[in-house]
Amino acid sequence: MGRWRFLLQPWGCGRAPGSLAPRPPARGLASSFPLPRQPVPPLAQTLERYLRSLEVLVTPEELEETRQLVQEFGAPGGEGERLQAQLERRAARMENWLSDWWVQSAYLESRLPLTVHSSPAVVLPKQDYSDWRGQLRFAAKLIAGVLDFKAKIDQQALLVEYRGGHPQCMAQYSRLFASCRLPGPKHDGLLLPPPGRRAPTFITVVRNFQFFQLDVYNSDGTPLTVDQLHLQLQRVRGLSWKTDKEPLGVLTGDHRHTWGQAYSTLMRDRLNRESARCIQRSLFTVCLDAPVLKVSDERYPSRVAAQMLHGGGSYSNSGNRWFDKTLQFIVGEDGVCGVLYEQAMADGAPIATIIDHVLDYCLITDLDISCFTYRGFGQGLPKRWGLRPDSLFQVALQLAYYRTHGSLCATSEVVSLRRFHQGRTDAVRPAAPPVLRLARAMDTPHSQDEETLSLLQAAVESQSARTEQVLAGQGIDRHLLGLKLAAIGDGQRLPGIFMDTAYAIATHCRLLTGQVASRSDCLMVYGPQVPDGYGVCYNPLDAHVNFAITAFNCCRETHARRLARTLHRVLDQLARLLGESPEGVDRDGGGDVEGQP
Length: 597
Description:
Blueprint: E1 4-7, H1 43-53, H2 60-74, H3 79-93, H4 99-108, E2 121-123, H5 132-154, E3 162-163, E4 166-167, H6 171-174, E5 180-182, E6 189-191, E7 202-207, E8 210-215, H7 226-239, H8 256-266, H9 270-281, E9 285-289, H10 300-310, E10 327-332, E11 337-341, H11 348-362, E12 372-375, H12 380-384, H13 389-405, E13 411-416, E14 425-428, H14 432-442, H15 449-471, H16 477-490, H17 496-499, H18 501-507, E15 511-515, E16 523-525, E17 534-540, E18 544-551, H19 560-577, E19 585-586
Parallel strand pairs: 7-9, 9-10, 13-15, 15-17
Antiparallel strand pairs: 1-8, 2-11, 2-16, 3-4, 5-6, 7-8, 10-11, 12-18, 12-19, 13-14, 17-18
């Protein structure tokens, strides 16, 4: 039977030398499928689409100035052609010209805290228990379900999903386990299990700020049963009854520079090094959270989202986290559950797949967990009109932002590039001019429904076309980033196109949106990309759609609840326009996540 071992005594600051030095980002594992390489889009095409994306974001005078910079950049024999040639040579010699750059620039070089700013959380259906006995029993089933999923990966028996005729890349699933982010003073590294070696056989369990190493496999290599896991968790509980321990896990949620310095100091102690290494190398982490204060039914979804996203603070459950860990499952004593993951190693699509598998394994049936749910308007209605659901909801979000703030904004709708070898993500820019025409028509008194419906179809079709372009590897955001990074790598002056005010406006995305489709009625939550922005994630099911909207409390211009209420009204209008009578919505207001910085 497996065993457990207590980790992380209160960390000393001994003088013994040595530390876990951050490793350089490791390249992804080779794909198990013959997927095509990610292409480098044509330079002229990207520059043309970039100018079109600025039409409603800058003034005509600013647009003309940017147009001249773009023409200079893309002129024959100019800087653009030289940098484009560098990207094409990079694409010819590498498995994926973008993935390493993207992980490094978007994640490992960022010094903002992982909590809220980077790591997304997923709120799972509330369970039907309300004490520690039910908590441990469910946690045992959850662990068994995750191990079952891992076994299917190891045996290459996982049912491959085909979306749009393209299989998902199995490498993304393999990297979920036994990996971790490593803090550094200037930039972070990644810890991956060495290829060819046997994977670790233990997980990390944390309760009352105390970390335990728990073996989850028998000596013959078979995973522990649910009953065996339940017994081990009971023993962990018996050893972690004290509540006066220091919440050391909170350190991992600090600013990356601060945490990197503290980590370097703490690792001088041998016990600290061994303890941290066990957490980092464990397959995943299970956080057994204490119950939190009850709130009203209206605020309950937002409170749960906050607990999953950041733990609620050092006096709540934030000390039960190791935010650097790729995969953390959160099981509360009061029935709330969720998943927190680190984005440098994982994207939303594989997380949703593993959640579906685990929930099926646990036979969960309770589905009422959303920050807010719009009923009677899910995937079914758009499809009956021949509309792409994600594009329709993206248009709805643009309309809601326009009505809330009186203008459109730079938006990043994150989509997966899993149809390419080692593909990560790119961003879809909204179909701004068609949406602007639709917004003005919807705000015009006595406007004709036929005309408005035609404008809606045009906006959604334009958004769908943009989405297909990005899914085909022809997006502009990552291409422009690649050109910029190539210029930085040369050590020469940055081209004027990247120093332009319009580029800063185009990359300051006040709406960070994404669809993480899941068969389960769960909901992903993440923070905004910029201080004065919103983070919006949605999961459209057949009969309803779940939304989570976040905003920073420190910004007076943004208010998640206000945007959510406007979105409700927009969806009401669209439902009536498409010939449906909305069945009503759960109006907790989609409030902003409580307690975030």
